[in-house]
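pasting for ref
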Amino acid sequence: MLKTNLIFVLFLWMVLSCLRFSGSGEKFVPPKEIAQQKSDSIMTAFMNHDKEAFKELLCPGLQEEHPDLDREMEELFAFVEGDIISYDLDYPTARGGSTTELGWVKQFITTKIIDIQTSSGKSYNIHYTFNTIYKGHPEQLGITYICIYKSDAPHDPVTGYPPGESYLIEFKGRL
């Protein structure tokens, strides 16, 4: 009887420990899946020149910081010569953040959409960072940084992007 009670108590303790450390109860979505969804949404907005769909992906802080965002998005769309024919996803090159015993406090994904082929024969890449969780900073949920650049242009050793051959929109207030 004592042995049965001890086994039951240990089992209950294990179950409660698992529940306590399982985080916030939110469903875990793998970074690869998040990157695929966001990249597909970015490319759909690009292909349709849909400023509103693109804005929905950007963090509110970036939107507030760029009062002429519509013009910037038009320039971003115009930077790509021709119609987009195909693209590939370079799966998350970085994933990070911070956690506590209660779950994620901040989680971000940095990835690239590569080999964007267009009807003009040009090829582009898009590099972006997306905050999926940022407790206490709702203004930073979404894309905080996005850069599109010509794939074959020589890259600047400092910035990593081709000077004059890239277009960047970023949230300067990101933490």
